[in-house]
From TrEMBL:
The gene is hisS. It comes from Devosia oryziradicis. Its main location: cytoplasm. Signal peptide: none annotated. This is Histidine--tRNA ligase. The keyword Mitochondrion does not apply. The lineage of its organism: Bacteria, Pseudomonadati, Pseudomonadota, Alphaproteobacteria, Hyphomicrobiales.
Length: 473
């Protein structure tokens, strides 16, 4: 490389992140626990590709020559537009419709994977993030929706969050009935009303009342324009917020049926509750909607105590699969935000984000004896023990041990010429060594004591390492 060659700065694009071994291992444990609950409920895994034909992703994409607003899109050699999936539900609808004749109905599946949003990133808002979904396609009754809510509660329990969450349930049909009763007809005003209702937990009834009217000014002086309802219209919505749903509404009946199922299965309001303030997917959902809310408090960027909030949600979306087939296909499901849930578990001490144990490292004391060192590594690997031979600069013993420390290795194996002649090995317990180092301050004492180091016969390598690893756990 010449001096004039310009080096490329190693950096990630905004809105993406790298994951370390500790993070990957911790999230892997969390995902295994979620999978166990899903499978206990009879759901099976399915995996769809990261890319879908853009037209199959649905009406939520803009109608432009290059459909990249909100999604990442490319054009293939056949001049077909493809897009990175922005959720896991639209690909499921395509998969179900494409395999309609062979799949069982109802079709119960779960999916895990990355999704992509081509939007401005911000704090805690990424362009690539992982979701974990479960859906039932082909079941139209409230029983399927109730089962989703119960499964969400069981997932939270399996993750150790008992008493720290609530699954909140509402129904879009009830919300639509309230809007009709209040005489709200324009889409813009409907959206403003539902956004106001969604702020009930944050601003209380008085704050919602302001947002239903002219608007609300917060403590900083910022003004949020309201829905512009008359006092009479706002009263209808506020009655609903206060727990007085409209009479003779299909959504009310569905919620009552779901509540009966929750009660029969032993899910009390401390775990699952009907909540009129839940608002999700204004164009997307067609019936029951639900959210998992974590109820413990954390501090926001201003140092204020706030409830952690939602880590997942879902509802009934009976129109999505029907884009591909003429007959109606009911569907319901929910999605968990994996990164956000992992952050919550970390805050509650239910996620072990410690660096996983590294491999046993066989140090190289004599380059002429590489075959012998490799044989030791092979013996350990054949015994099911994670191991590697040091492959860097072998001239400095201290740097080899430092490498093992950096790899979070529990043990190093040492064989110099003297050990080889005597048919022995030195085993260094790095975990015990680190603990002993805290009590030894004198360097000469350290060298004399060689804490955590002991001698074994060469033929006892596997049994000695296995025994020490067991003791370290």
């Amino acid at each position: 490389m010449t001096e004039k060659t310009k080096l490329i700065t190693p950096r990630l694009p905004r809105g993406f992140e790298d994951r370390t071994p500790g993070e990957i291992a911790a999230v892997g444990v969390m995902i295994d626990k979620i999978k166990a609950v899903y499978e206990r409920y009879g759901f099976d895994p399915v995996e769809t590709p990261l890319l879908e034909l853009t037209e199959t992703l649905g009406k939520f994409l803009p109608d432009t020559d290059r459909p990249n607003a909100g999604v990442f899109s490319i054009q293939d050699d056949d001049e077909q537009w493809m897009s990175l999936r922005y959720d896991l539900t639209a690909p499921l609808a395509r998969y179900f419709a494409e395999n309609f004749e062979t799949l069982p109905k109802p079709y119960r599946s779960y999916r895990q994977g990355y999704v992509f949003r081509n939007e401005k990133p911000g704090p805690g808002r990424f362009r690539q993030f992982m979701q974990f979904d479960a859906d039932t396609v082909g079941a139209g009754g409230p029983e399927a929706d109730a089962e989703m809510c119960m499964m969400m509660a069981d997932v939270m329990d399996a993750l150790g969050l008992q008493g720290k969450y609530v699954v909140r349930v509402n129904n879009r049909k009830v919300l639509d009935g309230v809007l009709n009763a209040a005489g709200v007809t324009s889409d813009e005003q409907k959206l403003a009303v539902l956004r106001a209702v969604d702020k009930l937990d944050k601003f209380g009834t008085d704050g919602v009342k302001l947002l239903l009217g002219a608007g609300r000014k917060d403590e900083s002086g910022d003004f949020t324009k309201g829905a512009g309802l008359t006092d009479a219209q706002a009263a209808v919505v506020l009655d609903y917020v206060a727990g007085k749903p409209p009479a003779d509404n299909d959504g009310v009946a569905e919620l009552a049926a779901m509540q009966a199922l929750f009660t029969a299965a032993g899910y009390g309001p401390d775990r699952i509750k009907i909540d009129p303030s839940v608002v999700r997917g204004l164009e997307y959902y067609t019936g029951p909607v639900f959210e998992i809310e974590l109820t413990f408090k954390v501090q926001n960027e201003k140092g204020q105590d706030v409830v952690f909030g939602a880590v997942g949600g879902g509802g009934r979306y009976d129109g999505l699969v029907s884009r591909f087939r003429r007959e109606p296909v009911p569907a319901t499901g929910f999605s968990i935000g994996v990164s956000r849930l992992a952050n919550a578990l970390k805050l509650t001490g239910n996620l072990d984000a410690a660096e996983p144990a590294g491999p046993v490292v066989v140090l190289v004391m004599d380059k002429e004896q590489m075959a012998g060192y490799q044989a030791m590594v092979a013996e350990l690997r054949h015994a099911g023990i994670r191991a590697e031979m040091f492959l860097g600069n072998t001239k400095n013993f201290g740097k080899q041990v430092a490498y093992a420390d950096k790899r979070n290795s529990p043990i190093v194996v040492i064989e110099g010429s003297q050990e080889r002649e005597q048919g022995i090995l030195q085993i260094k317990d790095l975990i015990a060594g680190k603990q002993a180092a805290q009590a030894i301050t004198d360097n000469a004492e350290w060298k004399a004591a060689r804490p955590g180091q002991f001698e074994i016969k060469r033929g006892d390598l596997v049994s000695a390492v296995r025994k020490l690893l067991s003791e370290q756990q």
